[in-house]
Design a protein that fits this description.
The chain is an alpha/beta fold and about 350 residues long. The radius of gyration is 21 Å and the shape is globular. About 40% of the residues are buried. The chain contains 19 helices and 9 strands. The chain is about 50% helix and about 10% strand. It folds into 3 domains: about 5-95, no CATH class; about 110-240, Glutathione S-transferase Yfyf (Class Pi), Chain A, domain 2; about 245-360, Rossmann fold (3-Layer(aba) Sandwich). The strands form 2 sheets. Strands 5, 6, 7, 8 and 9 form a 5-stranded mixed sheet that branches. The protein has a 4-stranded parallel sheet with strand order 2-1-3-4. α13 (about 210-225) links the parallel β3 (about 205-210) and β4. One iron/sulfur cluster (SF4) binds near residues 18, 41 and 79.
Length: about 350
Amino acid sequence: MKTLEDYKKEISKCSKCGLCQSVCPIFKITKNECSVSRGKFVMLHGVVNKELKLSKNINKYLDMCLKCEKCDNFCPAEIKATEILTCAKSEYMNKNLAGKIIFLLQSKLIFSTAIKIGKLFSRIFRKERKSYEKAKNIMYFKGCVNEVFPQTDIYLNKIFKNTPINITEQNFECCGMPFLSEGNIKRFEECAQYNIKKLKCEYDYLVTDCASCQSVLHSYNKFFNAGIDTEKLLNWGDIIADSQIEFHFEKPVTVTFHKPCHLKNDDFFKKIIDNCQNAQYVEMENYDDCCGFAGTFAIKNPKLSKELMKSKGINIAKTNADYVITTCPSCILGLKQALKITKNKKTKVVSLLEFLSKAEIK
Ligand code: SF4
Ligand code: SF4
């Protein structure tokens, strides 16, 4: 992977037009130039030209980023801001003690062993699935949270009880997102290469219910030329929408949807709700705004995180929904906090799979 020096030309492509300010959720709150791509590039320009040191202060602003990629998608110069900011973060972390300690905690020995132990315990609650002779072969990339907690398997068994699909799994590593966002490129690469090898097999679809895992699997092609067929890389929502399963809710329910920053396509949601009897959808204002959790962002920037959660909570309350649905375990935590901050006792946060498993399946 590239060094900050390799991005020198890319950084100097920034015309300082300031358009990234209009989409950056952090700039909207702070109004601080250093918290948006333009300001960060001014600092990094100084770093690559040896006029500035990659200091603690610059790192503070590197951490003030949700990695929501809104600036990437909006920049007229097509600068890959999040990629460059991750590279700068990596160079900073590799040079200081705190970085070394975090990287040690993220090592295979500690991080992967902890997940493996959780996975072993959760096996008790998972049931063997029936396999069908002729059915879609789905490779399930569970992600760390679903490896440890068995609920999603239970929901899937219920949702697909009348639909023949074969779900296969591999002994995958973490997708690498937590390592990438801390600048632990070496560990990210280790996970990615391992998973890429495991994915060299036959499947009709590669499916996840975590928007972050999905976007990282997508990025394996860009970073490692992994050859993953991205047409086959889907969310469980896409599979459910396609299978035309009907869901019947005993009592009328009102639902709203939070789109995770890393979910590229949410077309499945409305299609699924159309197949839900007794469920009414109310679109939330700014339904694609970040929930404010964003991994370690919430820990490093508690005030900013709270602001984002508060405005998300206000928008949820306006819908008066019984359920706020999403497809990312990390967003679930952010949304729960949003409800707590806004003292919303009516709405419950659920994953799409949990919500659908509450219905009678036809
Ligand atoms: S939108 Fe792109 S070119 Fe314009 S200021 Fe932001 S990073 Fe620079
Ligand atoms: S990734 Fe999101 S939060 Fe970070 S600078 Fe870009 S728009 Fe702002």
